[in-house]
Amino acid sequence: MSSRSGRAREYETSDQLPGRSASPPAPEFSETEAEGLIFYHMDLYGSKERFDIFPEEPSGQVDRSLGDTRRESTLNSEKFQCSQEAGYDLEKEVAELARMYGLDEDREKELELLGGHLETVESKWPPAHAEKAGSQGSVHNASKSSSPVKDQSQTTKQQGLPSEASQDGDQSKARVEDEAESHTWSREGLSSGGMSDEWSSQPVSEEEEAADVFCCTCKMPIRAFDKLFGEHKDHEVAQLPSAVESEKEEIHKNMCKLEEQIAQMENFASHLEEIFITVEENFGRQEQNFEAHYNDAVQVLAQKYEEQLEALGEEKRQKLEALYGQLVSCGEHLDTCKELTDATQELFLENNKASFMKAAVTMVDRLEEFLKKEVHLELSTLPDFEERVIDFSEVEQLMNSINTIPAPCAPVINPQAPNTATGTSLRVCWGLFSDDTVECYQLCYKPVSTERHSDEQAEHTLKVKETYCTITNLLPNTQYEFWVSAVNVSGISPPSERAVYVTAPSPPTIKTKKIRSCENAALVCWESRDINPVDSYTVELSKLTDEENGEITESIVGIPNCEVLIHLQPTQSYRICVRALNLGGSSERSEPVLIHTTGTYFCLNEDTAHPLLAILDDGFTIACDELENPECDLPVYDNSFTRCIGILGSLIPFPGKHYWEVEVEEDTEYRIGVAFENTPRHGYLGANNSSWCMRHIITPSRHKYEFLHSGMTPDIRITVPPKRIGILLDYKNCKLSFFNADIAQHLYTFSSQFQHYVHPCFALETPGILRIHTGIATPPWTALP
Amino acid sequence: MALKQVSSNKCFEGFQKVFEHDSAELKCKMKFGIYLPPKAETGKCPVLYWLSGLTCTEQNFITKAGFHQAAAEHGLIVVAPDTSPRGCNVEGEDESWDFGTGAGFYVDATEDPWKTNYRMYSYIKDELPKLINANFPTDPERMSIFGHSMGGHGALILALKNPGKYKSVSAFAPICNPMQCQWGKKALGGYLGSDASKWEAYDATQLVKSYPDSHLDILIDQGKDDQFLSAGQLLPDNFIAACTERKIPVVFRLQQGYDHSYFFIATFINDHIKHHAKYLNA
User: Which of A719, A747, A784 has its CB closest to that of B278?
Assistant: First the structure.
């Protein structure tokens, strides 16, 4: 209490508040004042006079001394606290702080100065330390002179100080002595080192000429003679050259060790330099942190102080008004008394009895009436002020938070690293600029939507301990937006920038029905299962052998389309998979397909089929049940044959040889061969220059075979109607040959320079079926027709 | 069986040679042409026998057909014998161009005065192959036969009468059914007698009917403008009909505009060489 009141007084010296609260009643009072009342006036407003005086001298003195010594008191606040009673610790600390920052009107300036001070203190530590005792004294002198009432605690503090100062003095003195000692010691060390050098070199130079062996025991070269008879008689010796060798080796080893140490020390030195920088950085951060927190604390204190002071001033005003009222009524009473006394005295001077009596009666009544009135001599208000509890809890909280870690800065989210995503998961990484203390991170994400109301998309939040996280259960080939905040006890950082990551695509689906292959190549096509486009595709192929099954032997990367022509080796089996790629990574493998490079494999192009032509379930048997209305009303696709009941196959566009067979029935009329993709759909196969085919017709007398191109055929008789026709397309030799495959009989060969790639073609001219066989190795007998 | 080289000319890195020898079968000196492909210098090669037509000697084929390049390419030895015994002084042998000298018809004659010397069937079938195999780097297991006109007839009957002996057979405008044509009737009647049933043994169309179920790929080219076709000397339709019935595989190509000459042969000789090479080199 006592110390607090002392503080309050000090505040008043620099504050306008007291003046404001005191002055309004004063003019009123002085106008209405009677001289006799000055006594009261003096008593009540005595303090005001002091207020007028104080700001001029003592408060200025305090300010100056405070300004000078602030840093010292900060540094030594710990020591002050030690010397205080335990119960006062907190109060004292707050008081010190308040005195440091709260006393002056221009606090901000002071705070700026404080920053500078702290820095200088850091660099000039020892001098400040030495000056401490003296300046400390001046602080307390100032405070003594400024506060007329010296309380117990202050005395204690002052008493404690000199002894501390002297202790410090002792310590520094001891340190100086230590240093001196160490100096002498090192000098001694040096001199002794020099001495030992001299000592060790002497014997070597003396005995060099004669020495021929080395005494291992004495570690010195000696003459062989000494070994036999001298003092080294029983000592272990070695030949000098070998001894020199071993010694050199030893020295070399030590040299190596020295070099290692040098390297170590250099590393350590550079590490230290880094640490220096880190210390500087950490200091800067910590400084800022302190500044911010202390600022807060001071602001809160100033605010509290103003509130308290206002309340106090209000109370004072009320008290004074009450007392003033009482005083006025008291004066009125006195006036009445005086008047009555005067009237009574006048009455006593009245000589006329009758008039006296007449007046006396009224006078007595008046007196009686007046005396009947009670005289209130109790104070309407007490001079004591209401006890006010100063609430420091908020400041305390602020003070506590000064020592805790600052809230972290916003983390930096990394852009997506390649190949870190799968179709359903993403690995997100982020980092921090500085070494913030972070308890965990709050990772948020949501799918990126092109629609406007993307905000309605559900946001997900995760708590993560590490600086990375793998998020699962995502949609394939989808963009997600990520942002992250760092969290510690002091709070949560602002969120990082938003980073867009994309999940890997879904595995594509290979169109197994559209695969085409031949001995040296395969054409594989697939479709993406994602709506969003992907960057490219990778095809993985493995050659299947008896020993190793399914090892990846080749990858074709960067395929932009959903189709690729792969060069392969003949008569092998391959397993082929496709992956889709985007920025995030590659999809899982597609379902594999097996490709055998035995013969040529193609499929039928259903789009080209005449409406009357049926493809059976195996995909390679075509049938025609009826021939009526060949140009009927059945639905016709744009690409389908309209007159000839035919169909095209889809042959791989690859040069080289292609062989396939067609199984026919003896009584079926057909046309089989090849045609350009754009061969007229309304014509007959072989009737134009874009198709080449073998035609079978049954005449009343015989089976007739035509080999048609542009409607022309050679006259050829075939005695054995073929049941299985082999067709060899040889781009390189510009030939298309037909064989009776059952008996390896060559039937006919077209020689034609095929300008474009052709496709197999098949047509039925009577009800019946044609069975197409692919994937057959080209028979050797086709080599020479 | 001594061979006497008559000529030797380098041709397509191989050699076209002509030899003369004393034939035991024909009891006279016989010449034959033989083309040795370059491959014959290092290894054994299959032999393709060519039988020429009426009036021809061993020279016609080797000088006119232009077969050498294809034969060199496929490594075939091509042997072209004469078409009849010569200088045997058989009465009447030089009276007509379609009988006697130059028209042996590839039969073993049974009638006098022909039966001593006119044994061309046995000569082509046995003596010549034996001679060739003994003197040249051949593979005796691989031989084929082809011919033109009367030689086409000879090739067909040799193949049909000896299933398996020849890997393949082909013919240019062969006399397919000699029993039914003027040439055939004259020759077969002269060499074999008037009993037509004996002729059947040398008639391709007849032989097909009794040919066992053994694979034989027959290629026949016929010029459509061949005067002997229209004259009914060749009768390929009869042969084709017989083959169709017996399911003997034949590809018969009626070549528009071609006649009976060696120009026709030269045009399609490569197809025939390839046809044989396919089986001989299989």
Answer: A784
- For the record, the structure tokens of A649 come out as 């196959």
**Topology annotation, domain A606-782:** Jelly Rolls (2.60.120)
Three-state secondary structure call for residue A775: coil
SS (H, E, C) B17-42: EEEEEEECCCCEEEEEEEEECHHHHC
Nearest to B244 among A702, A747, A780 (CB): A702
- By C-alpha distance, the chain B residue nearest A719 is B244
* A718 touching B (Cβ < 8 Å): yes
Structure-token pair, residue A376: 């209130």
Q: Three-class SS string for chain B? A: CCEEEEEEEEECCEEEEEEEEEECCCCEEEEEEEEECHHHHCCCEEEEEEECCCCCCHHHHHHHCCCHHHHHHHCCEEEEECCCCCCCCCCCCCCECCEECCECCCCECCCCCCCCCCEHHHHHHHHHHHHHHHHCCEEEEEEEEEEECHHHHHHHHHHHHCCCCCCCEEEECCCCCHHHCHHHHHHHHHHHCCCHHHHHHHCHHHHHHCCCCCCCCEEEEEECCCHHHHCCCCCHHHHHHHHHHHCCCEEEEEECCCCCCHHHHHHHHHHHHHHHHHHHCC
Residue B272 annotated in active site: no
Q: What domain count does chain B have?
A: 1
Classify domain A412-502 by CATH number.
Answer: 2.60.40.10
Nearest residue on chain A to B247, judged by CA atoms?
A720
- Quick check: is B68 catalytic? no
pLDDT digits (tens, 9 = 90+) for A242-300: 878 888 898 999 999 999 999 999 999 999 998 888 888 878 877 887 788 788 888 88
How does pLDDT run across A97-122, given as a tens digit for each residue? 555 554 444 444 444 444 444 444 44
Distance from CA of A779 to the nearest CA of B (A): 11
> Chain B contacts of A720, Cβ < 8 Å?
243-244, 247-250
Cα(B15)–Cα(B273) distance, rounded to whole angstroms? 17
CATH code matching the domain that covers A509-596, chosen among 1.10.760.10, 3.40.630.30, 2.60.40.10, 2.60.120.260: 2.60.40.10
Contact A524, A471 (CB under 8 A): no
CATH number for B246: 3.40.50.1820
Q: By 3-state DSSP, what share of chain A in percent is helix, strand and coil, each rounded to 5?
A: 45, 25, 35
Q: Which residues span the domain enclosing B148?
A: 4-281
- Chain B residues in contact with A698 by the CB 8 A cut-off are none
The contact set of B with A (CB < 8 A) is 74, 215, 217, 219, 224, 240, 243-244, 247-256, 271, 274-275, 277-278, 281-282
ipTM of the complex: 0.90
CB atoms B240 and A719 under 8 Å: yes
In angstroms, the separation between the Cα of residue A640 and the nearest Cα of chain B is 35
CB contact under 8 A, A716 and B275: no
Of B144, B149, B168, B170, the active-site residue reads B149
For residue A745, give the nearest of B217, B244, B281 by CB distance: B217
CB B129 within 8 A of CB B115: no
Token pair for B225: 């403008």
Beta bridge partners of A726: A661, A739
A179 pLDDT above the threshold of 50: no
Provide the token pair at A468: 């990375």
**Does residue A234 sit in helix, strand or coil?**
coil
Which tens digits make up the pLDDT trace of A626-664?
766 655 556 666 788 888 889 999 999 998 889 999 999
Is the fold of A412-502 the same as that of A606-782?
Answer: no
In chain A, what are the domain boundaries?
2-201, 205-235, 242-372, 412-502, 509-596, 606-782
Of B244, B274, B281, the CB nearest to A719: B244
